[in-house]
Amino acid sequence: MPLRAVPASGRPRRGGVLRSQTAPGLRLLLLGACLFAWPWGSEAAGARRPNVVLILTDDQDDLLGGMTPLKKTKALIADMGMSFSSAYVPSPLCCPSRASILTGKYPHNHHVVNNTLEGNCSSKLWQKIQEPYTFPAILRSMCGYQTFFAGKYLNEYGALDAGGVEHVPPGWSYWYALEKNSKYYNYTLSVNGKARKHGENYSLDYLTDVLANVSLDFLDYKSNSEPFFMMISTPAPHSPWIAAPQYQKSFQNVSAPRNSNFNIYGKNKHWLIRQAKTPMTNSSIQFLDEAFRKRWQTLLSVDDLVEKLIRRLDFHGELNNTFIFYTSDNGYHTGQFSLPIDKRQLYEFDIKVPLLVRGPGIKANQTNQMLIANIDLGPTILDIAGYDLNKTQMDGRSLLPLMRGTSNVTWRSDVLVEYQGEGYNGSDPTCPAMGPGVSQCFPDCVCEDAYNNTYACVRTMSKSWNLQYCEFDDQEVNSIKNHPRVANFINHGSKFFTWVSIKDN
Ligand SMILES: *[C@@H]1O[C@H](CO)[C@@H](O)[C@H](O)[C@H]1NC(C)=O
Ligand SMILES: *[C@@H]1O[C@H](CO)[C@@H](O)[C@H](O)[C@H]1NC(C)=O
Ligand SMILES: *[C@@H]1O[C@H](CO)[C@@H](O)[C@H](O)[C@H]1NC(C)=O
Ligand SMILES: *[C@@H]1O[C@H](CO)[C@@H](O)[C@H](O)[C@H]1NC(C)=O
Ligand SMILES: *[C@@H]1O[C@H](CO)[C@@H](O)[C@H](O)[C@H]1NC(C)=O
Ligand SMILES: *[C@@H]1O[C@H](CO)[C@@H](O)[C@H](O)[C@H]1NC(C)=O
Ligand SMILES: *[C@@H]1O[C@H](CO)[C@@H](O)[C@H](O)[C@H]1NC(C)=O
Ligand SMILES: *[C@@H]1O[C@H](CO)[C@@H](O)[C@H](O)[C@H]1NC(C)=O
Ligand SMILES: *[C@@H]1O[C@H](CO)[C@@H](O)[C@H](O)[C@H]1NC(C)=O
Ligand SMILES: *[C@@H]1O[C@H](CO)[C@@H](O)[C@H](O)[C@H]1NC(C)=O
Ligand SMILES: *[C@@H]1O[C@H](CO)[C@@H](O)[C@H](O)[C@H]1NC(C)=O
Ligand SMILES: *[C@@H]1O[C@H](CO)[C@@H](O)[C@H](O)[C@H]1NC(C)=O
Q1: Reaction catalysed by this chain (predicted)?
Q2: What is the C-alpha to C-alpha distance for residues 191 and 193, in angstroms, rounded to an integer?
Q3: Which of 59, 171, 247, 486 fits 137 for a cystine, CB–CB 3.0-4.6 Å?
């Protein structure tokens, strides 16, 4: 039997397998927190509050054609709504970025600094201090939404030291979360807190399809008396890039784009970029081209998921009352500045992501150029539900006015990009010359990360400016500290800094 959202005993009960922890009387009282005048105009007057779906992919770039394979998604979401052409992540790494989506906060406020428990990725402290205040938790407890999660959550989710897969974060009525990091086969799901193992039979286990199937089941069996929020978080196109069998021959003629910084030595860049070898070896180029093709192949199953989901929403008459967001947790690079494959850098290819939305009141085929960050998703979704954002501690702001096409909105011109590099204390035996302190040194001992790949940037964008300013926490401060232009920054305790050219990345 394929995995279904339906528990073994039959249809899910109202409120899900996990019973609502809020008593009915109290619940009614709390719902007052979200009762509001729905602002979309008279056509929707009296209508139920809108549903929201958030589709989150893993490592899908915007700059190198990441959306190209998703033809149906383009037609069904972008062409029916709005594409944000300047959408950024405040940290180009899965766990910090996902924590920013869930909390609406910058990393310096949610304290998830890397992909490990020690760095607060799904740690006990995260569970205690941040998780109860994520936007899904507010949606469920304060606004009475049914909430459904399927897919990859935080990289360390399910770790034994942090409660194992029995831990179901507050905020979710239905919970189908992947244990640990992205996989396609041979994985464990937490099904409402119970471990369910999957093997490697395509028609039973292919994770992107399992996520599609449990999502459709949720739509078939959910309660019709409350609005719902779904977050579907695919492993694709993260490594190990295993495509569905029917897509393994796709894109045979596609190679990674040879854009202006492909296989170029980043001579003015910070240390980590300069240690990359230029030109890259032929085998590195072959490897990254292969990775590029396979990433696109895995996205074809995501495109199918989006189509099935939208058809099912339509079948149930929910489509015109549902906002559907599509985005990724960070970008990706394949050969830029001679770094073979990864994210973790402060350049556009890694920090810029696709962001599409359709929904009631959003006109078709629009592009919005305002500077957006994923910390805006939580506030936007709470705003849709009618929750007073002044009651939250979120750093982001609601995109609703932009989605409605309000023309005189005063918008921000800056977002922060913050990253604490990952490293290891021992030398990597395959690259002894590179360690200690570095990580991700593959292929050809080119390291994609290091403890000192630690930086804080301001990405600025307005009518008159398109800039990025960064400061690094590394040793190079010593070599430039006598430079008159930087003296001021040094005095303020800052380290090596640079203006990043937007043109060349
Ligand atoms: C959106 O634009 C595409 C062309 O990019 C066009 O084919 C489509 O009909 C448009 N959709 C709507 C709803 O206007
Ligand atoms: C982890 O989170 C806690 C609570 O937010 C914070 O006190 C601690 O400093 C964080 N750890 C790191 C390494 O940032
Ligand atoms: C899944 O696990 C089986 C048994 O350990 C192994 O033979 C197979 O190679 C694995 N498949 C994948 C795709 O990881
Ligand atoms: C995979 O599962 C399907 C459906 O249960 C079954 O028909 C098929 O035989 C299985 N394939 C393998 C290789 O076990
Ligand atoms: C998903 O559902 C379809 C239709 O019921 C089924 O054919 C397919 O095998 C299922 N896939 C997985 C991975 O469960
Ligand atoms: C790849 O092949 C497809 C059809 O198979 C074609 O439409 C496309 O233009 C080709 N792309 C390149 C880069 O040759
Ligand atoms: C690498 O590829 C280039 C271009 O395809 C070719 O000219 C060169 O001979 C190759 N080098 C090696 C060592 O194979
Ligand atoms: C959605 O469509 C139905 C049927 O056409 C209509 O009754 C309802 O008012 C629409 N809802 C919205 C929010 O437009
Ligand atoms: C939220 O705070 C702002 C600034 O203090 C204020 O202008 C606005 O009216 C407040 N909104 C609500 C719903 O109270
Ligand atoms: C935007 O325009 C509307 C309608 O003209 C007006 O009510 C509102 O105050 C304006 N907002 C700003 C920020 O200028
Ligand atoms: C993650 O961050 C923590 C806290 O700063 C640090 O102790 C740990 O070494 C980091 N992990 C990696 C792999 O860099
Ligand atoms: C960064 O760390 C690496 C490895 O620990 C070291 O070799 C390198 O010199 C450091 N670079 C800077 C600029 O601090």
Answers
A1: Hydrolysis of the 6-sulfate groups of the N-acetyl-D-glucosamine 6-sulfate units of heparan sulfate and keratan sulfate
A2: 5
A3: 171
Query: Does one domain contain both 326 and 396?
Result: yes
Give 3-state DSSP helix, strand, coil % of the chain, rounded to 5. 30, 20, 50
Task: State the distance from the centre of ligand 8 to the C-alpha of 457, rounded, in angstroms.
Answer: 44
DSSP 275-309: TS-SSPPHHHHHHHHHHHHHHHHHHHHHHHHHHHH
Q: Which neighbouring-strand residues pair with 178?
A: 152, 189
Q: Which atom of ligand 3 is nearest to the CA of 186?
A: 1
Count of domains observed in the chain: 2
Give the residue among 352, 351, 330, 350 at the shortest CA–CA distance from 339. Answer: 350
Q: Same domain, yes or no, for 266 and 234? A: yes
Closest ligand relative to 51 C-alpha: 8
pLDDT digits (tens, 9 = 90+) for 360-415: 999 999 999 999 999 999 999 999 999 999 999 999 999 999 999 998 999 999 99
Predicted local distance difference test score (pLDDT) of residue 474: 85
Report residues of the chain scoring pLDDT below 50: 1-29, 41-45, 480-496
Both 166 and 291 in a single domain? yes
pLDDT, residue 470, reads: 86
* Angle between helices 94-103 and 377-385 in degrees, nearest 10: 30
Residue 433's SS3 state is helix
Helix spans in 60-185 (H): 71-73, 94-103, 107-110, 124-125, 135-143
Region of 122 please: left (phi>0), alpha (psi -120 to 50) or beta. left
Question: Ligand 11 centre and the CA of 158: distance in Å?
Answer: 19
The rounded distance, in Å, linking the Cα atoms of 306 and 189 is 21
Specify the pLDDT at position 497.
52
Question: Residues lining ligand 12, CB < 6 A?
Answer: 271, 437-438, 450, 452, 474-476
**Residue 28 is assigned to a structural domain of this protein:** no
Which ligand has the minimum distance to the alpha carbon of residue 365? 1
Provide the residue range defining the domain that includes 84: 34-412
Question: Going by DSSP bridges, is the β-strand pair 341-342/333-334 parallel, antiparallel, or unpaired?
Answer: antiparallel
Do residue 279 and residue 385 come from a single domain? yes
Q: How far is the CA of 242 from the centre of ligand 4 (A)?
A: 18
Of the residues 412, 431, 448, the one at which a domain ends: 412
> Residue 15: what pLDDT?
34
Q: Which residue's CA is the closest to the ligand 1 atom numbered 10?
A: 79
Q: Domain check: are 424 and 319 in the same one?
A: no
Which atom of ligand 8 is least distant from the CA of 47?
13
Has 94 been annotated as catalytic?
yes
Neighbours of 465 (CB within 10 A): 10
Q: How far is residue 380's CA from residue 374's CA, in Å, rounded to a whole number? A: 10
pLDDT value for 430: 81
